[in-house]
Every structure is written in C-alpha cells, then in structure tokens.
Specification:
The protein is mostly helical. It has 5 helices and no strands.
Length: 119
C-alpha cells in the first residue's frame, strides 16, 4: 500500500516536471519566435501542421514549420502523430455522404427542429 502511494506520488511529480519542462520549452520557443521571423510559436506550428495535412499551408508556412520542428521535439511528436493519423484515415475505406445528400438531410433536420420547437 505504501509502495503504491509512493509510486503514485513519484508519477505525479514526474508528470508535473514534464509539464514544467514542456512549458519552459514552449516559452523559450515563443520568445525566440518573437525575435526572429523564421521561428514560430508552438501553437502556430501545430496549426500550420494541421493546415499542411489538408494541403492548405503556404510554402513559407511550411519552411517556418520545418525550422521549428528542428528545434522542438514536442511539435515533432505532434507532427508525427498527425501524419500517422492522416495516413490511417486515408488508408481506411470509409464512405461518406455526397454534398447533395448532406444538404438535403440538413434541410430535413432543420425543418424537423423548427416543428419540434413550435410544439
């Protein structure tokens, strides 16, 4: 019982320490980003990573993201996981509704919602 409490306490301390390290690294990256045009904060890097996943990121954003990824292991892991998720989704054979069916269903839903709100 005492060992379990000690292990839980050590685990909590380790998690707190990692969170502090992550916060410190993000703060350092953000400070550098405010001083240099080629660097970006972690939040922006994650946003550009998401945009890149859908081919919406500009060349300049991708260049800045790659520079950021050289410096930040946390964002590298985020990008790695994001890429893995994208590949998995593309590889799956998920079918989805075409746009016209989706719009018709939305209209039907809105109509039913209005009728329900009136009653």
């Amino acid at each position: 019982m005492i060992d379990k409490k000690r292990d839980n306490k050590q685990s909590a301390l380790k998690n707190d320490h990692m969170t502090t390290l992550e916060d410190n690294l993000e703060n350092e990256t953000n400070t550098l980003a405010s001083k240099h045009k080629l660097l970006m904060p972690c939040r922006e890097a994650n946003h550009v990573c998401d945009k890149s996943q859908y081919q919406e990121a500009t060349v300049w954003e991708k260049v800045k993201l790659n520079i950021h990824l050289l410096l930040c292991s946390f964002c590298r892991n985020y990008t790695k996981n994001n890429t893995k998720l994208t590949r998995t989704i593309k590889a799956s054979n998920i079918s989805y509704m075409d746009k016209t069916c989706k719009e018709a269903l939305k209209k039907e839903f809105d109509k039913a919602l209005k009728e329900h709100q009136i009653n």
